[in-house]
Here is the input.
Amino acid sequence: MAAAFGKTWWGEQWLNSLNNIDYSNRLPRGASYARKGAVEKIKITGNHISAKVRGRRPTPYRVDIILPPFFDPELGNFLNELTNRPVIISKLLNRELDPDVLELARQNGLKVFPQQWNDLKMQCSCPDWAVPCKHLASVIYKVSAEIDNNPFLVFSLHNVDLLSEM
Here is the structure.
């Protein structure tokens, strides 16, 4: 794993979940692109990640990744259980995302991290037919760095603002 990505527990979980389903070994090539600075203009809006990635052609490729939003009853059950955990609530109010939150989400049927590529809707404008291509993979790595900076992003990517829900 590159030192620049997945430095925190949550960022590492994001990358590990995707490495566990990367049977075509596309992620290492994407890591190289991400390290070289090929990812431009990354934008995260709700559960939609978009970016431009420089490749071999003069015009950067457009990458889009969409994660599934969380809905009730699973989301409601998860939030109700969170409110009954004072230690976790205390950490959340201090902007700390306890790893126990992931297990609580799992117990309530929420898939915070992808378990298969089909859990993500992904598109790239490059000519490579594979999903994920190296351009998509490079954005996945850049998102891990964003998660390192803000672990609450793992929930925002499912349209859940965990702090405001508390």
Q: What stands out?
A: The chain has a mean pLDDT of 91.
